[in-house]
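Section handout, structural biology tutorial.
Before the tutorial, make sure you can parse a SMILES string by hand: atoms, branches in parentheses, ring closures as digits. In the record below the ligand is zinc ion, and the chain has 303 residues. In the tutorial you will relate the predicted structure tokens back to the input. Do not try to memorize them.
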Amino acid sequence: MIKLVCNTNKFYKMTRKHCCPRCENKDIKMVKKDKDGKQHYYCYVCRKNHRRPYFHDLTFTVFHGKKLKTEKIIMLSHYFSNNDSAHRTYKTSMRINNKVSLKTTWKYFKLFREGILKFQSRQPLEEKHWEIDEIYISFRDKKHHQATKRKLRGKSVTPGRGTELKTPIMCIISKNRLDDQKKRAIKTIPLENLSSQYIKEKIDFEIGLSNMQIVETDEFPSYKFMGKVALKHYEVNHKKHFVNHRTGANTNIVENFNQNIRYYFNVYRFCDTENIELYMNEIIYRYNNIVTENDILKMCIMN
Ligand SMILES: [Zn+2]
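Predicted structure of the complex:
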């Protein structure tokens, strides 16, 4: 029998508390550890003010007030960092004799994704040289299931190779890596239509047109306005070649990132269109970083 050995001391090391989370006073003492491995504390000031004096490692974090054991939370973060799907972790958890139901794995994976989103939204985008491209993805949400029902009646409306029932997503990626870290600044924007006016407004809202100084795109007609907005706008004709011989313009970095999106959506299988931002942010994080369980737990606990 395999058994995953979890260090339940982990939360104590990450969130070693020097002050009370309720009153922010340093007059506290350590009390004891419970069976779960959580360190408990006692606050003297809260005792005087007739509040709850006791608190532990996970009070006022994302995992506050949840019944799941810390051992299981750490196990779920381990499989999440290995890029396993929710259904697969549910099956492996049964095999290790440490069972977690399918609904709770969905719930906790969403918590981890929200932690990543919270962490990533703080990073500023100060780049001037960009590549732009778009990709079509079928999210397989409720619309997809309705389409499969309609097929039974005689109409074939399932997402195949065409662009119907798929949502276009525009990817904007920086040509240069950010200094000191080997990361790129990336923005993904789901589009409702492909008119150049709509795309212009979206780019202005997300990044700002003043930051678009040098831009490289393919010969899609909606990107023509970039010639007026940006200082320099290079184009590649993908029917002829991948790199423009005259100017050296190419969109190969975005094409690589788009293939990453395809790969990760094989793991998710189903995705609600409301949660596009969560999933996209996770993909950007996985593209830029090597994912470990400690980093994910830290991002969730951080305020
Ligand atoms: Zn207190």
